[in-house]
Each structure stands twice: as structure tokens, then as C-alpha cells.
Write a structure and sequence with these properties.
alpha/beta
Length: 248
């Protein structure tokens, strides 16, 4: 691609978003899911995006991950304008990004190790021996060495999410996007999952963006962004660490 960003991007900026909008239309109405979002995410940061259901936070994550295309505005990823990619180009781009889903979406008939290996097969950039080594490394990192031959129905919810984390790391991405990774977990398991993600983020020097409406999860991040009605708003905390509304 030959486009260059309208702002000078320092080397350490991974994501630059300019006036991003997303509108969904049907026959009778239009919904503005995002309205003029501007955002900068640096390399090696752990970012939390908070907001109520329907606020636009998952839409933002989907646009950054190439799962959808914006109505207007720009998304620069590692210096590349990904907002104007064709569908075919977005498929290729998605191989560069790790995605952790709230529902995890593991293949039910595949074992733990097969689920983790799958993104590497799609990427077609590693031979079998290299894939096996990478899978074994990741299984060790997420603490599932004794469960690698199990299928998803034989795993707990926390173990499934650990598989999802390992799968997201499979192709050594610079960026991982996590949509409500603790949403289906009890508080203790959720805390362990966020700690694991934080530890892996530091070990592998990657950027992680987590969408959540759990403030305790968000507080583990380096930075917190809040979305309300499709717009970024300031996040203010009181002396007890509770989120307060912006003062007019």
C-alpha cells in the first residue's frame, strides 16, 4: 500500500485512529455505533476499553481487528492504513492479529493442541515441526501441559479461555484483541486469566486491548479508555477507585 498517514507516527505507536465512525443501516433506521473516535495505542501497552452494553466498544475492537470496515475515518496499524483494505486484504491482515473471544469459539472436535495449531495452519508460514514446537511452548505457558490431548467438553471454562489465549498467540502477533475475556468466568478464575494475560503481554512484548465492563479487570491495564454512546469519554476515579461521571 502507498498511502501515508496524515499525522507523523513515531516508531512506538502501534495504532492510530482518526475520526473513526461506524453506522449500521437497515430499511427503517440508522445506528451510529461509533462517532468520531480518535485514539492512540503504543507498542507493548495493556489497554482496557470500558463501557456499557451497546456503547460501541466491541464495534471498535472489530474494526481494529479487521473483522469489519469503518463508515469513515482512518485506522493506522503499524504504519499501514487498514481502514481501506478490501475484504481479501482484511482476511490476510487478520492473520497478524490475535483475537480472544468471550465465547472462546474453540473447535469442539479438536484437542487443545489442535485448536492452538489451527491459526498457524491457516497462515501457511510454518512447517509442521515448527508448529508443534510453538504449540508445546504455548501450552506450557498457559499451564495446560496435562490437558493438551483433551477436547473442549473435557475442560473447565477457565481452561478453555487459556486455550483461547494460547491460540491468539500462535502466530506471534504484535497485537491481541480480547472481547470480554472474563465475561463467562467467576471472579477468581477471571482474576487468574487477566494475570496470565498480563504476564504473557510483558514476556512476549505485545500490545493487548481488552474490552470489558468489569472495572476491576480494567484497573489491571496501563491505560483505560471509556466509550459512551459511540464516543470516547474521560475516565475519572474517586479516592476509592470508583468510576465517577465527567463533571460538566
Amino acid at each position: 500500500m502507498t498511502n501515508t498517514p496524515s499525522l507523523c507516527i513515531p516508531q512506538k505507536i502501534l495504532i492510530l485512529i482518526e475520526e473513526l465512525t461506524k453506522t449500521y443501516d437497515d430499511r427503517s433506521t440508522s445506528v451510529e455505533a461509533l462517532q468520531g473516535i480518535n485514539l492512540i495505542v503504543m507498542e507493548n501497552e495493556f489497554i482496557a476499553i470500558i463501557g456499557s452494553s451497546g456503547s460501541g466498544k466491541t464495534t471498535l475492537l472489530n474494526l481494529i481487528g479487521g473483522l469489519d470496515k469503518p463508515t469513515s475515518g482512518k485506522i493506522w496499524y503499524d504504519g499501514e492504513d487498514i481502514s481501506s483494505l478490501t475484504e481479501e486484504e482484511r482476511v490476510l491482515f487478520r492473520r497478524k492479529v490475535g483475537i480472544i473471544f468471550q465465547d472462546i469459539n474453540l473447535h469442539s472436535v479438536l484437542t487443545v493442541e489442535q485448536n492452538i495449531e489451527l491459526p498457524m495452519i491457516y497462515a501457511e508460514n510454518l512447517k509442521k515441526l515448527s508448529r508443534v514446537r510453538r504449540v508445546n511452548e504455548l501450552i506450557e505457558k498457559v499451564g495446560l501441559s496435562k490437558r493438551k490431548k483433551h477436547i473442549p467438553t473435557q475442560l473447565s471454562s477457565g481452561e478453555k479461555q487459556r486455550v483461547g489465549i494460547a491460540r491468539a498467540l500462535a502466530n506471534e502477533p504484535k497485537l491481541i484483541l480480547a472481547d470480554q475475556p472474563t465475561g463467562n468466568l467467576d471472579s477468581e478464575t477471571g482474576e487468574k486469566i487477566i494475570k496470565l494475560m498480563r504476564d504473557l503481554q510483558r514476556e512476549f512484548s505485545i500490545t493487548i486491548m481488552v474490552v470489558t465492563h468489569n472495572l476491576d479487570v480494567a484497573k489491571k491495564a496501563d491505560k483505560i479508555f471509556a466509550i459512551e454512546d459511540g464516543k470516547i469519554i474521560p475516565v475519572i476515579f474517586d479516592s476509592n477507585g470508583k468510576k465517577q461521571p465527567k463533571k460538566s
